[in-house]
Amino acid sequence: MHWLVLVLSGAMEAVWATALAASDRFRRPRPTLVFAVSLALSMAGLAWAMTALPAGTAYAVWVGIGAVGTVLLAVLRREERLDAARAVLLLVLVGCVAGLKAVA
User: Fold this and answer.
1) Least crowded by CB within 10 Å, which of 8, 10, 36, 89?
2) How far apart are CA 92 and CA 86, in angstroms?
3) pTM of the predicted structure, to 2 decimals
């Protein structure tokens, strides 16, 4: 259960990072609200997951999921391009995150 919460918290990190960029320095109300809510959910989930998982591993997994998710959201929104090199590096990052989960 802790791993599931950690994965969802990592997804929320991608949401808050995307909303933060869209908030235009907190001048746009809707993205600012999405940022605040998703940030709170992401941090609460990470904190709860760390009660049963090693802190370093949990944090690395959370950041990895958030980083990959943020890039994928930007690609889906056509704000960034996904070339072959970036795709390979994202796959390596996912492999590292999976490896951390496997050995924890």
Assistant:
1) 89
2) 10
3) 0.89
